[in-house]
């Protein structure tokens, strides 16, 4: 009866293929567990990887826009703080004016000096800057556009930095101190009363508050959008560690079984070869 080794060789090659396949699956599962990523290469899920790249790009742009909005909020908050201080100064100037009218000559000089010092402070506020950018400007063309969507220049924006405090209080502001001061219902050379200047400051604060509110809503939306984009990208890219742990255990068992089958098929071949060699020696 003829004896062939073909069946044993085929079994060995087949078991070797199972072994390589199980080893590859086990290595990929381990990579997913260690990296936390479900898609390790474009070959795993081309469409999913392309979608993840688009989501990642939009998320990156969204985060930049959100940072710009937050920085703009800080600018407007500082602007509003300066306006609040200007309002407090004007209220104090109005009080000094009322006290001046019923004071004697000595007290009038004191009140006049205080009034002038407040004028200097008011003048300094008009030229205040935040991070090198002027808080107030009379030129509307210098307004900064803060974009609030990922569409860039084609999307929505909020203009900041163009509040004209000069027109509101210039009649009472002074750049340098001068002892010669006359406190009256209106400032020297101006036609705006102190109460009128206070009203103007209140109007500017209302504008500043409106911009701050709009920036706040935009920031909240961008923050929520960022969370949504991260969640969507996570569903595509992040591996299920529990599932992958089960897969790794399964592939490990398959690998061990294939290794045992390969060893058994090789052993069968060796036994037959030894039998043939022993027959030839007789």
Notes on the structure:
- This protein is mainly alpha-helical and 282 residues long.
- The strands form two sheets. The chain has a two-stranded antiparallel sheet with strand order 1-2.
- The protein starts with 5 loop residues before the first helix and ends with a helix.
- The N terminus is likely disordered.
Tags for this entry?
mainly alpha; 282 residues; disordered N terminus; 70% helix; two-stranded antiparallel ribbon; single chain; rod-shaped
Alpha carbon gap, first and last residue: 19 Å
Structural class: mainly alpha
Helix content range: over 70%
How much β-strand is present in the residues? under 5%
Beta strands, count: 4
What kind of sheet is the major sheet? 2 strands, antiparallel
Rg is: 40 Å
Number of helices: 6
The residue-averaged pLDDT reads: 79
Q: Order of strands across the widest beta sheet?
A: 1-2
Segments where pLDDT lies below 50 for 5+ residues?
1-7, 176-181, 185-191
Overall shape:
rod-shaped
Listing every helix as H and every strand as E from the N terminus to the C terminus, the arrangement reads HHHEEEEHHH
Helices and strands in order, then pairings?
Elements: H1 6-35, H2 46-101, H3 105-126, E1 129-130, E2 133-134, E3 144-147, E4 157-160, H4 165-169, H5 194-237, H6 241-281
Antiparallel strand pairs: 1-2, 3-4
Helix pairs in contact: 1-6, 2-3, 2-5
């Amino acid at each position: 009866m003829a004896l062939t080794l073909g069946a044993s060789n085929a079994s060995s090659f087949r078991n070797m293929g199972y072994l390589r396949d199980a080893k590859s699956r086990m290595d990929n599962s381990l990579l997913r567990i260690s990296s936390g990523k479900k898609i390790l290469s474009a070959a795993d899920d081309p469409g999913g990887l392309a979608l993840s790249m688009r989501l990642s790009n939009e998320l990156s742009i969204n985060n930049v826009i959100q940072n710009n909005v937050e920085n703009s909020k800080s600018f407007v908050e500082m602007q509003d703080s300066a306006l609040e201080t200007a309002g407090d100064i004007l209220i104090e100037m109005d009080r000094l004016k009322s006290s001046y009218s019923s004071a004697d000559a000595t007290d009038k000089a004191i009140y006049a000096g205080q009034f002038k010092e407040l004028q200097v402070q008011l003048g300094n506020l008009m030229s205040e800057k935040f991070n090198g950018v002027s808080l107030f400007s009379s030129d509307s063309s210098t307004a900064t556009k803060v974009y609030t969507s990922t569409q860039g220049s084609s999307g929505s924006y909020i203009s900041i930095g163009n509040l004209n405090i000069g027109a509101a209080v210039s009649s009472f502001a002074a750049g340098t101190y001068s002892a010669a001061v006359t406190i009256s219902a209106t400032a020297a050379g101006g036609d705006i009363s102190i109460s009128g200047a206070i009203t103007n400051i209140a109007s500017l604060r209302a504008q500043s508050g409106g911009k701050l509110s709009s920036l706040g809503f935009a920031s909240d939306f961008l923050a929520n959008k960022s969370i949504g984009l991260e969640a969507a990208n996570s569903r595509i890219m992040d591996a299920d560690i529990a599932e992958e742990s089960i897969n790794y255990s399964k592939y490990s068992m398959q690998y061990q079984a294939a290794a045992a089958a390969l060893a058994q098929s090789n052993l069968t071949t060796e036994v037959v070869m030894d039998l043939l060699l022993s027959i030839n020696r007789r």
